[in-house]
Target: DNA polymerase epsilon subunit D
Amino acid sequence: MPPKGWRKDAQGNYPTTSYMKEQENITIDDLLFPRSVIVALARDVQQKTWEAAAAAAAANGGGAVPPEQKLLINKDAAMALQRSATIFVNHLLMFAREFSRENDKRTCTAEHVLQALEYIGFPGLKYAVQEKTNEWLVAQQLLKKQRGQDQTPVPADEGEAALQAESVAQPEAETAAETGAAETEDPAAKKARTEAAN
Model:
């Protein structure tokens, strides 16, 4: 017996689940990003704007800096931000999918998204997206190395220090490998040298 509320179609058969999903209309309310995430992003942008204004005032001879204020976003503004962000991302993804299909790929890569940004008229966002993507990739590599070494989490400030030490140590290791000194160097001395470089 079908669930309560299901009606028979014109032929007298109960519809299947896939048929019901096809008949379902998807609205933007079904696709909205979480309100808390959107509001947090808006506050983060406001914080960065305030920091930039403070830095500019300090660079120009210590002019008056407006006091930092918490950004208050009412319900209607948050809903407008949610809807506009959802529409923008879906529009961008539509063109990124087109670029992936042109390249005979099934999945969208970061390169497809960057191409779509340029195509829809936002080449200025391309650099910011590329920068955030690179930061995320570096964080993932650091997390992967950390999990490989031990299972204890590293605080964010130590993670950045480890990343900087790694970037300094790589060119040194390459030059040492070229000279043949990498095999004879003591690991404790190498660690002390990389920590001294920071």
User: Anything to note?
Assistant: The chain is about 70% helix and 0% strand. The mean pLDDT is 75. Residues 53 and 59 are 10 Å apart (CA to CA).
